Amino acid sequence: MGEAYIVAAARTAGGRKGGKVSGWHPADLAGVVLDSLVERVGADPALIEDVILGCVGQAGEQSVNIARNAVLASKLPESVPATSVDRQCGSSQQAIHFAAATVMSGAMDIVIAAGVESMSRVPMGLPSTLPYKNGFGTYMSPRIQARYPDIQFSQFAGAEMVARKYGLERDVLDAYALTSHQRAAAATKAGKFAAEIVPIEVTLPDGTTETHAADEGIRWDASRESIGAVKLLAEDGRLTAATSSQICDGAAGVMIVNERGLKALGATPLARIHGMTVIGHDPVIMLEAPIPATQRALERAGMKIGDIDLYEVNEAFASVPTAWLQATGADPDRLNVHGGAIALGHPLGGSGAKLMTTLVHALKDRGARYGLQTMCEGGGLANVTIIERL
């Protein structure tokens, strides 16, 4: 089987709910990223054989195959096909896996994997219920309810369950959240994100425009006191809004090619896909899945956690990466070194490609070799991707 190489990786800077990026239609936002990827490698856009794009809220402006609409909103020719993927928060990480598998098989040579989510314009949960007869239809079918009686799947409930299972008290979660903001602020000040961010023009409330090239969600003045003052989300819980990922608008993407693709583009690879894993796990605790997924991925790659130089574990809630650290024995100094979703935002279907973009650039910046990315996903799923910088 052939290899899969990443030759370009880019993302927009995240925008807060109702913030600077909220004026952008999600198809246009993703289209800008597609254009940037092509420009970064100096590619003939007609050489792109497919676009696989992750998106969770496939309703309203993100409906009717948002991937194809992103292509039509870009400079890519109409001949470039596209398809949309929903593996919940792992949607664009799964898009990366699909793209990598496609070029490794030789079925295609040059594929873009991307993701987008405008959580301002398509609110979270919008497509999950619709009017039906005398009530509302739901994804919890009668057979699912019979298998899981009196249970409503909830990511927040799962996050609290993870915290309790691993003995993570509020002070530990608060401290982790502060670290996320501090690392994101330090990375931004040091220009660590400059190479990966695609600047976009945004319109401000007063009608003026500016270039948006810095993540809007970072709390520059975050402190243990300010984070500790935020109310608990559940009376007997341990999590708060400050220890949860931020609602975010954003898009990201990577271009993935095989050996023939490299020659066709005349491109130099940034990284090689070293391993890919996805698992199903308990849908009730739900967010614990990255732990067994990581263990399986390392075993399949013949590696140990200490062999990995940098980790990106999505900060859906602070309990997820802290439990992952405890269970895997990973080095906390290698985890989310430029901050994570608590500070930078979690644009759902766009986060997989966003984290991969940051991981690729962070490995290059540090001269490190191996990176591992994973994230929890609705329904008790988790993807893991291991890459090698070249």
From TrEMBL:
<keyword id="KW-0808">Transferase</keyword>
<dbReference type="InterPro" id="IPR020613">
    <property type="entry name" value="Thiolase_CS"/>
</dbReference>
<feature type="active site" description="Proton acceptor">
    <location>
        <position position="346"/>
    </location>
</feature>
<feature type="domain" description="Thiolase C-terminal">
    <location>
        <begin position="268"/>
        <end position="389"/>
    </location>
</feature>
<dbReference type="Pfam" id="PF02803">
    <property type="entry name" value="Thiolase_C"/>
</dbReference>
<feature type="active site" description="Acyl-thioester intermediate">
    <location>
        <position position="89"/>
    </location>
</feature>
<keyword id="KW-0012">Acyltransferase</keyword>
<dbReference type="InterPro" id="IPR016039">
    <property type="entry name" value="Thiolase-like"/>
</dbReference>
<dbReference type="InterPro" id="IPR002155">
    <property type="entry name" value="Thiolase"/>
</dbReference>
<feature type="domain" description="Thiolase N-terminal">
    <location>
        <begin position="5"/>
        <end position="259"/>
    </location>
</feature>
<feature type="active site" description="Proton acceptor">
    <location>
        <position position="376"/>
    </location>
</feature>
<dbReference type="Pfam" id="PF00108">
    <property type="entry name" value="Thiolase_N"/>
</dbReference>
<comment type="similarity">
    <text>Belongs to the thiolase-like superfamily. Thiolase family.</text>
</comment>
<protein>
    <submittedName>
        <fullName>Acetyl-CoA acetyltransferase</fullName>
    </submittedName>
</protein>
<dbReference type="GO" id="GO:0003988">
    <property type="term" value="F:acetyl-CoA C-acyltransferase activity"/>
</dbReference>
<dbReference type="InterPro" id="IPR020616">
    <property type="entry name" value="Thiolase_N"/>
</dbReference>
<dbReference type="InterPro" id="IPR020617">
    <property type="entry name" value="Thiolase_C"/>
</dbReference>
